[in-house]
Amino acid sequence: MKVISTNIGKATTFLWNGREEQTGIFKYPTDEALFLGKMEVLKDTVIDREHHAGINKACYLFASDHYPYWRHLYPELEWNWGMFGENITLEGLDESTIRIGDIYSIGSALVQVSQPREPCYKLGVRFTNAKILKQFIDYGYSGTYVRILEEGFVKKEDQLILVEKSKNSLTVKECFQIILSKEKDPIILQKAINNHSLPEYKRERLKKYL
What we know:
The chain is of the alpha+beta class. The protein is 22% helix and 29% strand. The strands form 3 sheets. Strands 4-1-7-6-10-9-8-12 form an 8-stranded mixed sheet. A two-stranded antiparallel ribbon has the order 2-3.
């Protein structure tokens, strides 16, 4: 898996329900290498720290392979890497095979897959259409957050290289589905609850469906 683009954003102001809000979801390619810190990507903008950044969401990865699908749905938008708010756009990232807990080297950093990205209303702001939230969930390929085990720099053309595969077979795609689906598959549900690389608060929420 190869890094196609590294992306950072600045605070963008928008109107929501009659009041001004800010978001860091408007990210654009940069020629600079990104420094992946334990809590966030250096020089990136994070507004809502309750739901973004931190140990379990330090950096967001998304696949370039999904872009053609979304470009077809939204041809009127001005497209560039970073459209989904990802810090790193990767070629070959496949949520149906990557597992929660997998450990990868990328550039000089070491990262661990922690959880899928769950869309919020700000993705609708980015795409100027709230319908994308349901479309994103239905599509099923969410990209993934990673926690940073060893801080380091990542630049374009770097490779995401598997170092250690999780013994728990829960994939990012399965995790995304079990979190957001109304009908919970009991086998996938149990895998998610038993996967200690998934943040504890996520596993606790899922236990009520047992």
